Queue: 4 jobs
Job 1
Amino acid sequence: MATMNVSLPDPMREWVETQIESGEYASSSDYVRDLIRQDQRKQKLLQRALTEGVNSGQSPRTVEDIMDAAHKKLTDG
């Protein structure tokens, strides 16, 4: 396993220390590894969504139609 040194501003360092003290993480390395895994999962999900969108074809709706539907969904629940 490789070693990497990371510089953090004090508020971020304190945040990491708080996460460790909470017992959720064993060390700062454990916390950073978890953040990286989460980021990797997000990237994979985004890539899948983009690929699915490209493969789904072209919508007959206009951008205005889509925006109107989204606005209606947000305001009507």
Note: DSSP finds three helices and no strands in the chain.
Job 2
Amino acid sequence: MPTKKLSYRFDRLPVIYPYHLRARNQLSVGDLVYYGPCPPYYGIGEVMNIVENYCIVDFRGTGELEIHKDAFEQRYIIPIHKLNLSHLLMEV
């Protein structure tokens, strides 16, 4: 399988595992998030819905796996705005 050329610098996002204190966060619909343990696999997505401890995230195929929507436990998802990662996002 050929490696997809990513349009974002996912290697600059910190890896945060689900048992880490920084993985415990409050998410809301519309938050920009990424999959903490491995940012390049899924890419950056938007929280579409939250049901109990799970959230539906729309990644729009931004990562290596080209996944569009998936459901995760909240402890696996890291919100970008809470980590103050705005300096890593490129303006278009």
Note: The longest strand covers residues 44-51.
Job 3
Amino acid sequence: MTAPLTEIEKIALDLVKADWDLPSLAHPISEAEVVILLSQAISQLLDRDFERLLQICYRIDLGEAQLRRILHESEPDQISLDLAKALWERQKQKAEIRKRYS
């Protein structure tokens, strides 16, 4: 059984939902499931609208060097998953900052 999301991860999930067209979830979700859903959305954008993917990464403030490293060094079938993990970690950092200063 997977662990439910922490308070910070729930805030991060709200941030992720704001940027990505993720489906509404009727059940509790784990961090791993969030990354998989995010990976699927990224995969679609990689195939259909790369420019929009770059815009979202810029808006989320994923570092350009990190984005470039993932796009150029990850195995082709791992790019969406590696990018999802990086974006999820960035959103958790932003959630932590929001919680700390609110």
Note: The CA atoms of residues 57 and 63 lie 8 Å apart.
Job 4
Amino acid sequence: MTTRKTVWCALTVLAAAVLSGCADASKATPVSQTFSFSGRTLDVRAHETPTDLVATDRKDIKVTLWFDVHGTNPHSSQTLDGNTLDLNAGCSGWADCSARFRVEVPREVTVLRDGRKTDLRGLPE
């Protein structure tokens, strides 16, 4: 077998292995993180990742992430800098990933989504 055929076969097998299952965030184990928050307005930036925003009786902010990855190079982060909550989850290269966030905020906080006012969605658990 030529080197070109060997490489092609290896890439085909790798692609089949990576794509043999589709990532599904609904089947992922949730991971939560809380942030102290005393502000009156919160700007949530989720970079096009589906995100439920929920008003609750909490005094802090709780972020829950469901993240399923088939492949390599996954990355996720949740950071609060001032009144901006930055949520990131994704993957690169030969990978399929699916992510979903849920953000629980105190009822009295005004919530922005990417700088624009939004209604909170979802129901408290």
Note: Residues 9-14 have pLDDT under 50 and may be disordered.
